[in-house]
Amino acid sequence: MVKVANPEERKNNEDFYQKKEDQINQEGMIPASPQPIENPSTPDFDYNQSTDYLNDAPSPNQQDVMPSQPPQMSSDEIQEVAESIVEEKWEELTSKLGNINLWKETTDRDIASIKQEILRTQDHFNNLQRALMGKVNEYSDIITKVNSEMKALEKVLQKIIEPLTTNVKELNKITDKLKNKK
User: Which of 10, 48, 80, 124 has the fewest CB atoms within 10 Å, measured from its CB?
Assistant: First the structure.
């Protein structure tokens, strides 16, 4: 028994597939394509012969008895729909993100300039460190020279102070003698 779909069922199927296509376009998803029913199994039951069954149960709707076959889409049509969805989503993404290559070039330039600035800062730091170490070494040399000069002065003063003190004592004695004579 082969069932021919009436015009109302065909319209319902077309509406169903149109809704699915709209859903695909909105959500960006591609559901698995529906598989047509090749040989629908029908019960080996004759509805016309059994009146008990008809009296006890509500009359079946024609759609309930045998589902209609959905219109088949060719693989080319499916591929076109998938490509259009991917293209839409890609355009949406690129419009939100902007040109990725331009962003990459700008980021690469910024990173290169940051690297150059870091190298310049390191160079300035190294120069400052060298200058500071040079000054510390210079001060160390000066202090060493001052220290040696102070030791030499100490030795000279040791040699001079003893005769000087004896001379001062002698002068003191002479002045005392002259004061006493008066």
Answer: 48
